Amino acid sequence: MLSHKAKYALKALLYLAEQDENHISKTIEIAEGANIPKKFLEQILLDLKRGRFVSSKQGKFGGYYLIKSKNDITLAEIHRLFDGAIALLPCASLNFYERCLDCKTEEECSLRHGLMIIRDETLKAMHNITIASLITK
Amino acid sequence: MLSHKAKYALKALLYLAEQDENHISKTIEIAEGANIPKKFLEQILLDLKRGRFVSSKQGKFGGYYLIKSKNDITLAEIHRLFDGAIALLPCASLNFYERCLDCKTEEECSLRHGLMIIRDETLKAMHNITIASLITK
DNA sequence: ATAAAATCTATCAATATAGTAGAGTTTTGA
DNA sequence: TCAAAACTCTACTATATTGATAGATTTTAT
Predict the structure, then answer these.
(1) Which domain holds residue B94?
(2) How many CB atoms lie within 10 A of CB B69?
(3) Among A126, B43, B76, B136, which is most buried by a count of CB atoms within 10 Å?
(4) Taking CA atoms, what residue in B is nearest to A122?
């Protein structure tokens, strides 16, 4: 399941993608427009900024705006940024690999192979879900 | 990610599936064979019993054994039993549906459609991973 | 009866989640 | 230059979940 953070992040990105080009959105606008607790959203937007999905302008008339095309922001990326690995176990993960400590046979645990198949399928599907695809549903 | 419970459940089922027909396995055997904390495994086996994947015999010479074909036990089922919904949000779930409370438009949240696509893909893949398929990897 | 095994219920520590609070910094325009 | 508006940063908190452990109870075979 997605965390609330990841869900809110997607909704915030969706909100930003629906604004006019060059429009800059204040946190409070996004919060109200997408129904997200404002103070929580502040943290999420900072995370999205660190992830280089959005950028911001401080001070009066400041706010947030997309710096990545809505066609290039995928569910996979947002999942990884907020919820980590897409694979079902760390030993089957591409980006968050860790050895299973409870596996006797060092490299290959009995589940790893099957879970890598799932990972590849899920990843492929998650890569196709972009912010743009969510708008034009 | 899978919980330890779900992971241990899969490993326990794998262990049981690898035993001779009619063999009955004591918890301690499974625990040592699959490297799972014994007391924790006890709970997991009871869950698997309630889920009708295994059955048990009490008393001396008792233990656990599969009552479902290893070809019919899928990752999807084990995920649902121990970790719940396969979908990324409750509003996109088949078996654990709940409305998104933060969605303004009652029935359709902006993410639902995309997440249902992911769910279908993941589910299809998870359905193909069976205990049998994990053995003959 | 006794030993071996499953079963049941309770408890616990550590961690993650979902937020809230408030002070600090930057920018703008009057 | 000053104040308001906005982002930024750090800390805190309540609650739930996870990953176990402990111990008493019940069942069965010999």
Answers:
(1) 75-135
(2) 11
(3) A126
(4) B122
